[in-house]
Structure formats: C-alpha cells, structure tokens
C-alpha cells in the first residue's frame, strides 16, 4: 500500500477518497465536492456547477492513472456500478433520487473510480456489489425529491431517465411544450431534486460569481453560441469538451430564454434560425418566437 499511496497522494488534493479491494483489485473512489450555485437572477441561465467538478475529477483520475502506470502499477476501469461500490465501501448512501449522499458533502460531489490490479486495501465480497443497495432510511419518510421533480421522473421504483430534464437536454428533444417549460432557467443540468433534499440542507448555495455572470448572461451566451467553436472556448472547462456543440447549446438557450420574462427582447435573435436545417434549433427558435 505504501508505494501506491506515495504515488497517488500528491494528486489527491481537494478530493475525498477511499480505497477498497474486490476480487484481486483495489479501487480508488474519488469525489470532488462543489458548492452549488443559487438560482440565477433574471436574464441569466443556470449551468450546474456539478459539471466543473465532474471535469476536474475526470482529469484527476487520468493523472492518477498515468502516475500509477509510470510507477509500474496496472490500472483498470471499474466494472461495478459506482453507486454499489460507494455504498458497500461506506463512501456514500444511495438515495431515492438515485444519487449518492456523502456524509460531508450530501449529493454535492462528482465521483470517479480508478482500479489498480492487486490487493492494497480491506477486501469486499464481490457478491454484495451485484445487488442494488437499499436507499437511505431517511428517504422512506421524506419524498421531497419526488414531489419537486416537474417531469415526474422519480418514483419509489427509481428514476425513468428518459423523462429527466437532463436526458432531454442531452438529446435536445422536448416531447411536449410543458417539458420545455419545465427546464426553466436550467440551460445545462436541472438540480431541482437536489435543492430540496434535506441531506443537502446544511450545504450552502452561493450566488453566481462575477466570472459566471460574465459567461451566463443571455447576451453573453447568445454571442458565444452563435460564434462557432471560438465562441465556445471559454465554456470548455465548465461544460467539458464533449458538450461544446453550438447547435445544441443555442437550441437550449432559446428554450431557456423563452421560459423567462425576457423573451420579447430576444425575439429577433430567433428569427434567422426558424428555417434552420437542424430541427432541434428551428423548433427552439420557433418556441422563442412564439413567446413574444
Ligand atoms: S434532475 Fe430534474 S428532471 Fe431529473 S429527476 Fe431531478 S428534478 Fe427531475
Ligand atoms: S429529497 Fe428526501 S427522499 Fe429524496 S433523496 Fe433526499 S432525503 Fe431521499
């Protein structure tokens, strides 16, 4: 363990972590905590700070894998559901909202797992990872996330991912006008179920920083998303490279603006896209135009 620790410790700053061994491999569970942004003021969109934490922990994992390989360790991906591993290792507790709550950070963390061949930590029985872990007992008498979800994606049976706003944003397809309205100001991410969760009650939400304000105003987003790849560059560390798709982001922005009190001001911005060849964008432009 000492050689493994010596290799990884310098890279574990500002992360929560735990080690556990299963079936001849050791898994390093990593969590990057974050402080959520409060609901944005009028004229600004919400982009979930989770994605910044998620990018950060993804790169920490990559750095750890490279350092371990350089030190002669064999690394591997985790074959188990993260939630199952986290629950069995005591790293987090599964919730009704289908997320995991960490004892210190509630659901406000992004998680990654890196495997290393060899046994360097207390061993878990692989059989426990095959079963779905029970939800936190607190959830049995709470249910606030179920009531808060505007998409009715959550139930006692779990989540219907295809209904969740996150999936609709991902595909940029909104089956009903109401599903688009349910997005509210949430350009990327939703967070309604996490905001109401009592297990996050002690974690502060903070207002947009000046830097976020400069990037998340409707004007700034519109300018960036209509300027091609160059315009998207300042959003790379926030959204991650995979999500920098101008057509998709502009479509989501039109829908967010249509949901706001500012729709009238932006009608003109939608007009050039009404006949766009990408139906996601033309439909979103039409949604905004119709709201004026
Ligand atoms: S993220 Fe939003 S849409 Fe998805 S389950 Fe939570 S509240 Fe519902
Ligand atoms: S809101 Fe209540 S039911 Fe939902 S995950 Fe949090 S504690 Fe569990």
Topology of helices and strands:
Blueprint (H helix, E strand, L loop, with lengths): L1 H7 L7 E7 L2 E9 L12 E2 L2 H21 L4 E2 L5 H7 L4 E2 L5 E2 L7 E9 L5 E2 L12 H4 L3 H5 L5 E2 L2 E2 L5 H7 L5 H5 L4 E3 L3 H4 L14 H7 L1 H8 L2 H5 L3 H4 L6 H13 L8 H4 L8 H12 L2
The site of one iron/sulfur cluster has 12 residues, from helix 6 and helix 8.
Please tag this protein with its features.
single chain, 5-stranded mixed sheet, 11 strands, alpha+beta, binds iron/sulfur cluster, two-stranded parallel ribbon, 15 helices, 2 domains, 292 residues
Uncertain residue segments: none
Task: Give the number of domains.
Answer: 2
* Main beta-sheet strand count, sense and barrel state: 5 strands, mixed
Total helices: the number is 15
Bound ligands, each once? iron/sulfur cluster
N-to-C CA distance: 63 Å
Helix/strand order: HEEEHEHEEEEHHEEHHEHHHHHHHH
Number of strands: 11
């Amino acid at each position: 363990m000492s050689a493994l620790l010596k290799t990884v410790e310098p890279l574990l700053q500002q992360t929560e972590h735990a080690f556990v061994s299963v079936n001849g491999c050791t898994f390093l569970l990593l969590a990057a905590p974050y402080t959520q942004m409060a609901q944005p003021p009028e004229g600004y969109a919400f982009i979930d700070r989770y994605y910044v934490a998620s990018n950060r922990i993804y790169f920490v994992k990559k750095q750890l894998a490279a350092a371990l390989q350089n030190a002669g360790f064999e690394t591997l991906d985790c074959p188990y559901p993260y939630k199952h591993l986290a629950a069995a290792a005591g790293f987090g507790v599964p919730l009704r909202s289908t997320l995991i709550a960490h004892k210190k950070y509630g659901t406000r963390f992004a998680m990654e797992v890196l495997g290393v061949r060899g046994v360097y930590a207390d061993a878990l029985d692989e059989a426990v990872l095959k079963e779905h872990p029970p939800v936190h007992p607190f959830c049995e008498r709470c249910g606030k996330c179920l009531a808060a979800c505007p998409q009715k994606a959550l139930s006692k049976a779990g989540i219907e991912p295809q209904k969740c706003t996150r999936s609709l944003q991902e595909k940029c397809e909104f089956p009903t006008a109401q599903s688009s309205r349910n997005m509210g100001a949430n350009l990327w991410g939703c967070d309604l179920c996490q905001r109401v969760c009592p297990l996050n009650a002690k974690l502060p939400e903070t207002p947009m920083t000046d830097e976020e304000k400069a990037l998340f105003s409707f004007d700034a987003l519109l300018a960036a998303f209509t300027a091609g790849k160059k315009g998207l560059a300042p959003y790379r560390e926030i959204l991650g490279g995979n999500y920098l798709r101008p057509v998709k982001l502009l479509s989501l922005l039109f829908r967010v603006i249509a949901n706001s009190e500012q729709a009238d001001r932006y009608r003109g911005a939608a007009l050039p896209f009404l006949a766009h060849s990408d139906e996601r964008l033309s439909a979103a432009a039409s949604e905004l135009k119709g709201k004026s």
